Amino acid sequence: MKFLYALACGAIILGAGCNSSSTTTPSGSVNQSQSVAQAGTKTYSLSDVAKHNSANDCWMAIDGKVYDVTSYIPNHPGGEQMVQGCGTDATAMFDSIKGGRGHSDYAKSLHSDYYIGDLK
Question: Which residues make beta-bridge pairs with 53?
Fold first, then answer.
């Protein structure tokens, strides 16, 4: 079990450790899935995001999450307007379209496809 947990956390391949907190279920078994999920979340600073500021390499932060949207730019209904947010915290821009109504629920649902980590 510990070997599989280490693989899931990337400890063997990447040399990274896992969050050692785990919970015990009512049956007495250890539930380590929450620890694995926490260990897998990457964090990026705004200066990290700023390095990816072009249509060929576009990251943006929205609501504290970081997205690599490079592959979505050609599909964006607003065309190249999206490029203005590359390398920035684009929350205000994302929320201000359509006269301040913001993006659609469908657009928000796409975030999970491009999510790469949290903004620190």
Answer: 58
On the question of pLDDT at 115 being above 70, the answer is yes
Q: Is 61 helix (H, G, I), strand (E, B) or coil?
A: strand
Residue 80: CB atoms within 10 A of its CB come to 10
Mean pLDDT of 1-23: 36
- The verdict on 81 and 29 lying in the same domain is no
Q: Indicate whether 29 and 48 sit together in one domain.
A: no
Distance CA 96, CA 54 (A): 21
Q: Are strands 115-119 and 43-44 parallel, antiparallel or unpaired?
A: parallel
Q: Is 39 exposed, middle or buried (0-12, 13-18, 19+ CB in 10 A)?
A: middle
Whole-prediction pTM value? Answer: 0.66
